[in-house]
């Protein structure tokens, strides 16, 4: 796959045939975050446009590889995770430290760390902030 430093073409410049698209980016199993990002960018760029049959098949192939990589390297958390484990997962997946999480909640790092360890509970205001930031529903934190 091409490296992140090579710029992908804009949609109107993409080939209409499968062979031409493969010359832009060969659809194949993804092994790194950079490869995943590049395949995702290309598939996302194609989304929402009227595609030829070959473009549709190509986009589907890219999507299959991106989903396979994501499922292996970024599995979704269990629905029945305790709240603090869900919060740890969200922070980890988003590269957030305890201090970053504290800033999100508007609390100091010590309290944020205690929440992430499960030693303290979220308040309703915290839940609102977390839900807004991570695009979750509040029921993700009920009975967790």
Topology:
Elements: H1 18-24, H2 33-46, H3 53-73, H4 83-93, H5 98-105, H6 109-117, H7 124-134
Question: Would you mind describing this structure in some detail?
Answer:
By secondary structure, the chain is mainly alpha-helical. It folds into two domains: 11-73, no CATH class; 83-141, 434 Repressor (Amino-terminal Domain) (Orthogonal Bundle). 56% of the residues lie in helices and 0% in strands. It contains seven helices and no strands. It has helices at 18-24, 33-46, 53-73, 83-93, 98-105, 109-117, 124-134. Helix 2 runs antiparallel to helix 3 and helix 5 crosses helix 6. It is elongated, with a radius of gyration of 20 Å. The chain starts with 17 loop residues before the first helix and ends in a 10-residue tail after the last helix.
What's the β-strand tally? 0
Distance between the termini: 41 Å
Give the tally of structural domains: 2
Mean pLDDT: 88
What helical percentage do the residues reach? Answer: 55-70%
Protein traits:
single chain; 56% helix; 434 Repressor (Amino-terminal Domain)
Compact summary:
The chain has 7 helices and no strands. With 144 residues, it is mainly α.
């Amino acid at each position: 796959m091409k490296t992140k430093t090579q710029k992908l073409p804009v949609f109107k410049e993409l080939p209409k045939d499968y062979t031409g698209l493969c010359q832009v980016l060969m659809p194949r199993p993804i092994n790194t975050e950079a490869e995943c990002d590049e395949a995702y960018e290309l598939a996302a760029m194609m989304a929402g446009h009227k595609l030829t049959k070959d473009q549709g098949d190509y986009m589907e192939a890219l999507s299959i590889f991106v989903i396979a990589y994501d499922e292996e390297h970024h599995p979704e958390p269990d629905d029945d995770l305790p709240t603090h484990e869900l919060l740890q997962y969200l922070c980890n997946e988003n590269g957030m430290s305890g201090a970053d999480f504290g800033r999100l909640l508007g609390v100091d790092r010590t309290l944020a760390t205690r929440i992430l360890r499960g030693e303290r509970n979220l308040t309703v205001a915290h839940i609102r902030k977390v839900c807004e930031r991570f695009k979750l529903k509040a029921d993700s934190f009920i009975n967790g």
